[in-house]
User: Which sequence fits this backbone?
């Protein structure tokens, strides 16, 4: 690296750092309306459409006038009523009284201020069958002889072919060669009247543009006029086609363009065209004025004015709603291909030596393709281009393709919508209100939409002298200023501080200090908008505004410092209940009503019993003391609920059904409410107890089961003794003499627990414990 660059590198970093620190970039959420440099209402509104100015007389008394500029919602919070607010109003008004068939709406009014914008939607409908005007503008130089001959047979056939696409076709005709001056034509006397004299052919004189036939629906008349046409000639290769084309476009009355028709201009040539500034070769330096100069259907300014520029021709095609079809000789195709990119709604095809049928197909194909693309052009006064801007976004129907400002492939009957956004950058230097018009013109359509922009750059209160731009005026004389009574008027009762120590007394009125934390105001500078409680390092938690020392929270927040969300959705458990139905939402968190519960939604309670279990002791007590009204008082300590008795209670959605089974196997149904805040228990006085016959049967089965068990045990023991007896021995011989230690391990009784269940068991099975005495070890079975 170059040593100089190496030494320069740290300096460059320091410079960029200084620039970064000194360049003020607005932070997200920053109030752009607040500035100590503001002195008037007009300056306030220029800061943006969100800024407003309060012109209430005693608003923020004692504060500087720049505090009158703020966000509208802040001014309302500080006590400025809406009728005292001066602000930019963005408004869109549509005139629906003007009827239209293709473009709507046609008249729109928009009210804007500096920095504001508004959007409107313009609909362009593609009609199915338009009336069509087709004007053929033909190069009649000598090389176009064959093409001119074919054109003579096109009229009637083209009219019949276009009936499939148009309800009414009219045709017109015009011819051109070049400017009839040297060096474009030969000025020899023998060739001025007959440029083809060298070939012993009679030609018509060269001309810039000759309008031959105005629009007519009479195809026979069109054919008769075409057959009378003769060729002409010139000297140089390029022709004066664009000069003639502009005249055919702007001479509306002479050509006979119909206002309700689709306008097509068929341009036929086999050579390139002269462009603007080419006429200087002939000493012509006057720019083309874009106006019609026809006298007796002859272009009279051809030898006086220059050829038009492409931009000028483009504007005139748009202004007069004309589609252009270029049919050019194939060798010149590339030249015209680059040219037509600069012209709107243009169709280009190779001419060649075509037949009449191919020319008809060319016109029909061009008509269909041009109408399938819907585009808009936007124009307004160039003087206002620096203060206003416009953007266009097409909304294309199904089946079509969206481009930058157009939709292609649009079918007849479909509607294309364009979202037009207009914005205002700034006010004029004089600061006065200004009205401009923006024209939205669909290319090739004879209807357009006009957007009238009414800008607001001044304040109404200024014209009435009510804006209080310069603050409080002081007109007291010097003697009055020295009067101590004036200073006393700047002290509140019981205070020895002037203007509460936060301002100065001028002319007997407090002018409060400006503080970077906020606004100091009040008659004695005793008020401010920054002495409010903080939460997590932010005043009013960052969720509200400080007004008169108290936090005014936004809609979704509450609390002294706006620290609590007002919504209870954060406390809603998965079952949809608030804190699972066991607490309340405090500052966005669940506070459980039962100390045994925990969790974010009071959903956990390991120590909690079921509803039936928690009330079981109460039911047991009532059953034990008797289900009578006189004996209810004995169970007050075991019951936390109100107890009622019913013979046959109905179970509803809000009740839990439980069952208590007593020692004598009687079942007592009871019910408990599940609604939060209620505790009510209903005990059914009709208990279901087992009958005596069923008890006897039950005992008989138990005794038989025990007896069978004893028999099986005895038989098993006898078999074991015989199995271990020696062969030929007696029982006595096989007796095992137990030692004292062995006898200590022999149990004296046999215990067995029998569990039985009935057909409809209670909450738990019934168990019975049976003890059977053991026989002595050597005692035979009896």
Assistant:
């Amino acid at each position: 690296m170059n040593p100089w660059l190496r030494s320069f590198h740290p300096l460059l970093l320091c410079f960029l750092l200084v620039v970064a620190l000194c360049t003020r970039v607005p932070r997200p959420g920053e109030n752009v309306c607040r500035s100590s440099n503001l002195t008037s209402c007009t300056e306030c509104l220029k800061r943006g459409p969100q800024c407003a100015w309060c012109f209430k007389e005693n608003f923020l008394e004692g504060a500087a006038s720049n505090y009158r500029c703020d966000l509208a919602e802040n001014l309302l919070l500080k006590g400025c009523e809406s009728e005292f607010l001066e602000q930019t109003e963005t408004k869109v008004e549509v005139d629906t009284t003007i009827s239209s068939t293709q473009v709507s709406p046609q008249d729109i009014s928009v009210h804007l201020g500096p920095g504001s914008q508004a959007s409107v939607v313009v609909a362009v409908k593609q009609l199915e069958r338009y009336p069509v005007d087709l004007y053929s503008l033909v190069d009649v130089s000598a090389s176009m002889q064959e093409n001119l001959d074919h054109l003579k047979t096109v009229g009637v056939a083209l009219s019949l072919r276009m009936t499939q696409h148009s309800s009414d076709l009219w045709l017109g005709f015009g011819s051109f060669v070049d400017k009839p001056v040297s060096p474009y034509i030969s000025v020899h006397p023998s060739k001025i009247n007959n440029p083809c004299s060298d070939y012993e052919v009679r030609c018509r004189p060269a001309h810039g543009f000759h309008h031959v036939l105005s629009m007519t629906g009479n195809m026979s008349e069109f054919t008769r006029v075409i057959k009378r046409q003769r060729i002409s000639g010139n000297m140089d290769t390029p022709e004066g086609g664009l000069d003639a084309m502009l005249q055919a476009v702007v001479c509306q009355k002479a050509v006979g363009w119909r206002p309700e028709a689709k306008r097509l201009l068929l341009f036929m040539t086999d050579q390139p065209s002269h462009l603007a500034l080419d006429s200087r070769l002939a000493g012509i330096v006057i720019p083309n004025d874009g106006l019609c100069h026809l006298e007796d259907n002859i272009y009279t300014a051809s030898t006086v004015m220059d050829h038009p520029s492409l931009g000028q021709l483009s504007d005139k095609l748009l202004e007069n709603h004309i589609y252009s079809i270029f049919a050019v000789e194939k060798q010149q195709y590339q030249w015209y291909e680059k040219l037509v990119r600069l012209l709107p709604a243009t169709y280009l095809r190779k001419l060649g030596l075509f037949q009449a049928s191919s020319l008809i197909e060319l016109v029909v194909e061009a008509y269909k393709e041009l109408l399938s693309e819907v585009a808009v052009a936007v124009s307004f006064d160039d003087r206002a281009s620096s203060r206003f801007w416009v953007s266009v976004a097409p909304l294309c129907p199904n089946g079509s393709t969206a481009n930058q400002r157009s939709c292609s492939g649009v079918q007849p009957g479909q509607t294309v919508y364009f979202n037009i956004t207009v914005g205002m950058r700034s006010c004029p230097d004089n600061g006065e209100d200004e009205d401009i018009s923006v024209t939205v013109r669909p290319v090739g359509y004879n209807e357009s939409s006009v957007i009238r922009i009414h800008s607001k750059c001044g304040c109404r209160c200024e014209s009435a002298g009510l804006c209080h731009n310069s603050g409080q005026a002081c007109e007291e004389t010097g003697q009055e200023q020295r009067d101590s009574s004036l200073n006393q008027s700047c002290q509140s009762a019981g205070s020895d501080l002037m203007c509460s120590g936060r301002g100065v007394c001028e002319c007997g009125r407090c002018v409060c200090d400006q503080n970077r934390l906020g606004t100091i105001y009040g008659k004695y500078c005793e008020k401010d908008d920054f002495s409010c409680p903080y939460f997590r390092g932010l005043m009013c938690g960052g969720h509200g505004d400080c007004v008169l020392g108290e936090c005014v929270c936004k809609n979704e927040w509450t609390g002294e410092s706006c620290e609590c969300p007002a919504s209870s959705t954060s406390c809603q458990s998965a079952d949809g209940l608030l804190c699972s139905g066991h607490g309340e939402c405090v500052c966005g968190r669940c506070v459980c009503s039962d100390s045994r519960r925990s969790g974010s939604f009071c959903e956990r309670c390991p120590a909690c019993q079921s509803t039936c279990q928690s009330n079981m002791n109460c039911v047991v007590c009532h059953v034990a003391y008797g289900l009578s009204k006189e004996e209810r008082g004995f169970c007050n300590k075991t019951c936390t609920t109100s107890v009622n008795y019913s013979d046959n209670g109905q179970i509803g959605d809000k009740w839990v059904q439980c069952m208590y089974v007593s020692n004598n196997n009687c079942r007592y149904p009871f019910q408990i409410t599940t609604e939060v805040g209620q505790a009510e228990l209903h005990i059914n006085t009709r208990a279901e107890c087992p009958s005596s016959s069923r008890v006897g049967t039950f005992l008989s089965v138990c005794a038989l089961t025990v007896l069978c068990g004893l028999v099986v045990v005895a038989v098993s023991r006898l078999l074991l003794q015989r199995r271990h007896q020696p062969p030929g021995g007696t029982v006595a011989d096989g007796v095992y003499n137990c030692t004292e230690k062995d006898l200590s391990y022999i149990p004296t009784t046999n215990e067995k627990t029998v569990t039985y269940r009935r057909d409809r068991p209670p909450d738990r099975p019934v168990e019975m414990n049976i003890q059977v005495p053991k026989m002595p070890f050597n005692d035979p079975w009896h």
